[in-house]
Hints:
Elements: H1 3-79, H2 83-94
Amino acid sequence: MSNMQQSFSAGQTQGQTQASVEDWMQSGQNTGNRTSSAAQSAGDSAKQGTDQATGFLQQTGEQVKSMAQGAVDAVKNTLGTGDSNNNNNNNSRKS
């Protein structure tokens, strides 16, 4: 093989290697972009789930509080210490 042919082959190999490296780097960059997008999407979904859970827990807490207050009022009324009995007793004493 002559020096010109060897130089040509070396240049061709270098060019192919450089093209392969550039393709590989582009592929890695694309993978990084997809990974970043997937991570952002997962983060957004997690935030939305947290917000929904917080709203659900707040609503449930309010319902439990309301039910507990209703139970307390029912027991007070049963025992005769509820507000409606106190108002009736106060009104009857004034008469």
